[in-house]
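Quarterly update from the structural biology core.
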Amino acid sequence: MDEVVTPPPEPTPIAEPRAPAPPPAAPRDIIGGWRLVEMNGRAWPASPPEDNPPYPIILTLGEAVLVGHSQCLGFWRRYQRTGDQISTRAYGPVGMCARGLSEHERAFDQALSRIDRARVEDGRLRLSGPGAELVFTPHALRPPADFTGRWTLTRLDGQPAAAGAPPLTVQVTGDRIRAQSQCVGFLWRYRQTGPMIETFREDIGPVCERTLSGQEQRFEQLVTGLQDVTLRDDGTLVLTGGLRQAEFRRAP
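Predicted structure, tokenized:
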């Protein structure tokens, strides 16, 4: 009787090593200047009646603040962004113009309030959300104002600095604003994106054993909500924000 020979088992195929999945792409940086070219599927500017012209809208995105400017109007929002997701909330007044909002500016303001996604595709910034789609191309911003140095408050909200009150001095470096009024101290980190400025309060702990004066409270509100820095031809520094305005001269 012939011997039955059992064939050897087939070798187990060796699996090819799988390449690790690539990490999710980091969000493209959106900080900087952008010009509106399309709103809700229509090119900007549209063709409106002659008495309702659409002005160019420039969007400036900072670290935590964005603002769209249309002529002398500003549409301010604070924002938070995680990946492509973005959430916004109103920040500061709209108006600086001696006129109301046009139909187009009102539509832009409404669209800006609805966005929940921000992404850069093919060099264009797209902000979208329910019933809103805004498309921008890059726009060069004018350089930020250099207001570094030591300054003394001279006027606040249109009135001279409080007579008899301790002088309020401000020391500005490349990224910090430090203010002192007698034993009261304030400190903010700031960032400039083109002409836009945003501040971030830093705690330096209690110094005075007294409450803040009215002038100190108003100054704190101003810098905490700071929106604009202007250097006049005569050397005066003007800070605007928090519905307040202050003027300073260089300290010796």
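The first strand starts at residue 32 and ends at 39.
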